[in-house]
Amino acid sequence: MFKRILIAEDQETQNISLQKTLADLGSEKPEYVYYCDDALTWIKNAIKMERPYDLLITDLYFEEDHNRQKIAGGAELITAAKTLQPELKILVFSGESKPAVIDMLFKEMNIDGYVRKARHDGQYLKLAINAIYNHKKYLSPDLKQARKENNSHDFTDLDIAIISQLVEGTPQKNIPYYLQEHNIKPSGLSSIEKRLNLMKEVLGFSKNEQLIAYCKDIGII
Amino acid sequence: MFKRILIAEDQETQNISLQKTLADLGSEKPEYVYYCDDALTWIKNAIKMERPYDLLITDLYFEEDHNRQKIAGGAELITAAKTLQPELKILVFSGESKPAVIDMLFKEMNIDGYVRKARHDGQYLKLAINAIYNHKKYLSPDLKQARKENNSHDFTDLDIAIISQLVEGTPQKNIPYYLQEHNIKPSGLSSIEKRLNLMKEVLGFSKNEQLIAYCKDIGII
DNA sequence: GTTATCCTTACGGGAAACCGTAGCAGGGCG
DNA sequence: CGCCCTGCTACGGTTTCCCGTAAGGATAAC
Hints:
The structure is a homodimer.
Chain A: E1 5-8, H1 12-23, E2 31-33, H2 36-48, E3 55-58, H3 74-84, E4 89-94, H4 99-108, E5 113-116, H5 121-133, E6 138-139, H6 141-148, H7 157-168, H8 175-181, H9 189-203, H10 208-218
Parallel strand pairs in A: 1-2, 1-3, 3-4, 4-5, 5-6
The structure holds a DNA duplex.
């Protein structure tokens, strides 16, 4: 089993119960921090002392505080940690359930496991740690189904740019200028209309308002 | 100090740490359940046995499960509990931070305290329990500021109906029919336009899309 | 080099939304 | 009772959006 585990979790009660849950897994007493910056410092020091961590368990979102932090959230912490120690295993433990966010973590950040803070999270944490120890990926089961029923449109960068501009209040007819400035093509007004129509048709919507609400729900904006 | 405390929290790790946090407060070992229905049953039984609970600590949102529940969430649990035992003190412990939701809890459900699951939630829980024991209301400090910087428009039932219809995809010009059917007045098209304009003006928006995104963020829809 | 195809863009008619104005009903007050 | 004020509604002109069609440009196959 993993010898050295580091917990990065800002929520006091969660942090306590993480320590307790991991206590009976046969590793050393896990170490824990409440801030991302601290997490990175500890990882650095552990490498320097030639006792690097085996596993990092981290939340995604950290609250702001009087302590100004360089690293704002779990995602940044993961990239920073991976540059210091590429083989470090990462288990994300967060309340986030939006498929877009979780897909990104696995695909782009190459994390090893994700457990959502939910009903049986204690059991799943243990399963996840076991799986990761055996070099497998782990995703808590409550999320697997959520990803399956995903008959959604996959949003391109263009789609997201268009929707973001709408949310900013840019009139549709002015969006071509924005797209040209940011070298996003196609940038014609007709292409924007076509793209919006496609998205709405796939999702069964008729109005932009529905589309915005949907995008807010699944978390792409 | 409170003698008998009941915890209703579906998240395994949170539930554990709640028990641990409350352990050193001088009350009996707190009792805990993972489902709303169970919570209500326990409250009922406690009354029947003439050992009623003094305090209910509950989450707001409970996950669905193979166990079909009659009571879906914390809000319903609170109303059900209060009809059984009106003097029961209620402390809500949830991750929710949207002012609209929390205001509703204090004003309409008359809860005694709210602690948000956040950085120092352990300390705040203890403060909250003390405050409630002394018949005071308690709101965790991280939320007090959030409510102050609330220069937002207060949404009327009409506003919410209009926005909901937009999110449903109803064309603006058809919303009057909907309002008439539901006996919401005013129902004229001009009134709808006027109302939308007012909301957008107060919030500094120019387009409906911005308004929808904002409402999603603060959680009124 | 030519043709076919796909994608982007431009244009124009019609619908919806936006905005200002004016008429109408109800309530308070002298 | 008459007057004023407020809020709801109705109407027209302008802008924006919607949608179908057609022209331009790049790429790939022949």
